[in-house]
Amino acid sequence: MYDMWALGCILYIMITASMPFDDTDVRKMIKTQLNGSIFTSLFLWTEHSMALKQLLNSLLEPDLNRRITIKGVKSHQWFQQGSLSKIKQLLSISDTTLF
């Protein structure tokens, strides 16, 4: 389950080019992580889909028992729609058809 947390952090960094939590004050960072403060800022993003926000919310869920699993990530709506579905289609094309 910790790997899912790390995946959420990496995805957040890839999407925003910034860290999900301010690590200049470790006590404050832990408090922010545990109380879910990041989720408020996620929903203020207007340029990203609700599905992406929900996925990040599920990955960065502080409660280990409620955090999404890898199976849940793979079947998440964000991977089934938009640009990612196009990438999946491209990846499923055999190498011989690309040349």
UniProtKB/TrEMBL annotation:
Cross-referenced Gene3D superfamilies: Transferase(Phosphotransferase) domain 1
PROSITE patterns recorded: PROTEIN_KINASE_DOM (PS50011)
Name of the featured protein: Protein kinase domain-containing protein
Superkingdom classification of source: Eukaryota
Gene Ontology molecular function, alphabetical: ATP binding; metal ion binding; tau-protein kinase activity
Residues annotated as transmembrane: none
The protein's required cofactors: Mg(2+)
Keywords: ATP-binding, Developmental protein, Differentiation, Magnesium, Metal-binding, Nucleotide-binding, Phosphoprotein, Signal, Spermatogenesis
Example of a GO biological process term: cell differentiation
Signal peptide: 1-18
Provenance organism: Rhynchophorus ferrugineus
InterPro entries: Kinase-like_dom_sf, Prot_kinase_dom
Pfam families: Pkinase
Record-level GO cellular component terms: cytoplasm
SUPFAM superfamilies named in the record: Protein kinase-like (PK-like)
Protein kinase domain segment(s): 1-79
